[in-house]
Amino acid sequence: MVAHDVVETILKDHRTMEDLLRRMRSADEDRAHALGEFASLLIAHEVAEEAEVYPALKRYKDIDSDEVEHGEEEHTDGNEALLDLMEVDEVGDEEWDEKLEKLVKAVAHHLDEEERTILNDARANVSDERRVELGRAFERVRAEQLSAGCGDVENVRRAAKR
Fold first, then answer.
1. Angstrom distance (rounded) from CA 62 to CA 90
2. pTM surpassing 0.85?
């Protein structure tokens, strides 16, 4: 593994998201706190992908631009599901569980597709050096977003385009 490789960095975020989703499902965890962490990471992650990674990958002829654009559409779907969950009044009640499962489904679908298509294509077609450059740019934007409080409900509402 190369330090700052954009593919590895994105995959690490994906595993963190999956862990946070598991924590949100568990009555033994602080679900509201896990939701806050998840919201911040999801928004920061997708802003960084759409600002730095996706536009660069679209320039490679062996990376399917339609898959990249589809990834952006799936970000919106995930944001809508996240917003629906954030707007539930009572953490852990029946509505919470229902909205959480919709979020889990949307995010799991996106992570799976992105990993099988976009990220595998990036591994095969983008040089190690360029992946490190993209990884550093991704990390910079993600850190800026996280420090700006990107996971608050108003920002999620804007990201969900509502």
1. 47
2. yes
